[in-house]
Design goal:
about 375 residues, globular, 6-stranded antiparallel sheet, mainly beta, 2 helices
């Protein structure tokens, strides 16, 4: 698979100029040490999960998980969970702690003796949604007035992605809670015709008033190369719930366009190519942005850098290679920048076959 990906990348490089997604320059990340820390689990519930993208709201950091598989009733250690299906919600939220291996689950049900998480982004039967629908979300981002937003992809089933949308998040009884989903059908950007903005990554830029959202190509694009391009939009954080205020990055040639989602797809309008879901951070240590992600089809944890979120981005640097558990998938690079605001170290988690594993990278110059 990795050789096939390499061949596709080589063919793309030979297509000529005008490709805004090609790596440029030198990555300043060259000297580092990586330590494997262990597996992340909850201290008040018990489940298997994936994703866990981090975001800040009112000074506290939270993780948005994807599929959350409840452990068997009474089980307190995921490693001791017996085989079988014991319950599932399609996304969930947890409070981060000072220990990246420990989270505190929120929105718990009344199961006894171990309570389990309820779904974070609710499905709505009025939109013909069911509890089997996925709502794959990326990072929680702060908007204004103490509220936040989460961007998600409505996944009807393995073959049908409906579209990408945004939900308002407010603190209710001290817990981040989805209080409104936007769009007449619960989403704004239809997947067949529009990039799935926010599905790849979401980032609240600390050096501007903007929220940036990256999304994969429309589902109508089925050739491998075209389907791997990622497109970028942004909005002033205070306007996150107003679709008309979103700007869309049409490449180095045309720049930002207000209210004009992409209708031209390919290397001239995309911002990156062939990345899985990941997370962006600003590094004070390197004075640049870092994109954390995993190699598609592989297990390498990769970091690339840029001085602007529109790119261009440097080549990736591999900082770790995970060992797949039972031959499962490894994906979804997650950053924990709140653990070291100097940027000297960066703690990273990723999904390994529905286990969240954690590493710490220590940089030097």
């Amino acid at each position: 698979m990795e050789k096939q990906l390499s061949d596709w990348a080589k063919q793309r490089r030979q297509t000529g100029g005008g490709d805004n997604t090609q790596p440029v320059g030198t990555n300043p990340i060259s000297k580092f040490q990586t330590e494997y820390l262990g597996q992340q689990d909850a201290n008040n519930s018990c489940s298997h999960r994936d994703l866990g993208f981090t975001g800040e709201l009112q000074g506290r950091w939270y993780a948005i998980f994807g599929d959350t598989l409840w452990c068997s009733p009474g089980v307190t250690d995921p490693g001791s969970d017996p085989a079988g299906f014991h319950g599932l919600v399609r996304d969930a939220i947890s409070l981060m702690t000072d220990d990246p291996l420990v989270v505190r689950d929120l929105h718990l049900n009344d199961d006894s003796p171990v309570r389990h998480q309820l779904q974070f982004v609710p499905f709505d039967a009025d939109w013909d949604e069911k509890n089997t629908f996925g709502f794959g979300g990326t990072s929680l981002v702060e908007t204004s007035g103490g509220a936040g937003a989460v961007y998600y992809l409505v996944n009807q089933d393995d073959n049908t992605l409906r579209g990408a949308g945004v939900a308002k998040v407010e603190l209710v009884n001290g817990e981040p809670t989805v209080t409104k989903r936007y769009g007449s059908n619960g989403y704004w950007w239809p997947a067949p015709s529009t990039p799935r903005y926010g599905d790849v990554a979401t980032f609240r830029d600390p050096h501007s008033d903007y929220i940036y959202v990256w999304g994969g190509a429309p589902t109508s694009i089925t050739d491998f190369t075209g389907a791997q391009y990622v497109y970028l939009a942004r909005v002033n954080a205070a306007d996150a719930y107003d679709l008309s205020k979103y700007e869309y990055w049409w490449g180095q040639g045309d720049g930002w366009k207000l209210g004009q989602p992409h209708t031209v797809f390919g290397p001239t309008t995309a911002t990156v190519w062939l990345t899985g879901q990941g997370q962006f951070v600003w590094s004070d240590f390197f004075s640049c942005y870092i994109f954390v992600h995993l190699s598609p089809g592989g297990s390498d944890v990769l970091l690339r850098t840029a001085t602007a979120l529109e790119g261009p981005w440097t080549p990736d640097v591999k900082v770790f290679t995970a060992t797949p558990i039972d031959g499962g998938l490894t994906y979804a690079g997650v950053a924990h920048p709140y653990l070291d605001t100097t940027g000297k170290t960066l703690t990273i988690s990723y999904t390994n076959n529905n286990h969240i594993q954690v590493i710490r990278v220590t940089f030097s110059t």
